[in-house]
């Protein structure tokens, strides 16, 4: 069953330029290297430069859990942690009609 993940990063002021290449690389590697990752979008609003929104779509919960064990995921966390003021992660399962 499709599994969606949303993440909102509230960045510390002035860190977006350093944060973006790291999170974009994580997104590219996720789509390229993880068969269970269907989509990984990194979104911003120019009016809110310190907010970054991620939309990720996985085949199922197991694929998301596998994502969290991938080298690119594990390497990104320590590199971006000091740039994040707040992180809100939410997960959703598709409802069949």
UniProtKB/TrEMBL annotation:
Provide this UniProt record's keywords sorted from A to Z. Answer: Monooxygenase, Oxidoreductase
Record-linked Pfam families: ABM
Q: Which Gene3D superfamilies match?
A: 3.30.70.100
Name of the protein in its database record: Antibiotic biosynthesis monooxygenase
What's a Gene Ontology MF term here? monooxygenase activity
Q: Where is the ABM domain?
A: 3-92
Alphabetical GO CC annotations of the entry are:
cytosol
Q: Which organism is it from?
A: Tateyamaria omphalii
């Amino acid at each position: 069953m499709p599994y969606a993940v949303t993440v909102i990063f509230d960045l510390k002021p002035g860190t977006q330029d350093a944060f973006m290449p790291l999170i974009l690389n994580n997104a590219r590697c996720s789509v390229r290297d993880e068969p269970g990752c269907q989509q990984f979008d990194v979104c911003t609003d120019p009016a809110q430069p310190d907010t970054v929104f991620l939309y990720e779509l996985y085949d199922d919960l197991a694929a998301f859990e596998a994502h969290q064990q991938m080298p690119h995921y594990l390497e990104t966390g320590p590199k971006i942690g000091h740039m994040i003021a707040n992180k809100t992660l939410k997960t959703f399962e598709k409802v069949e009609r």
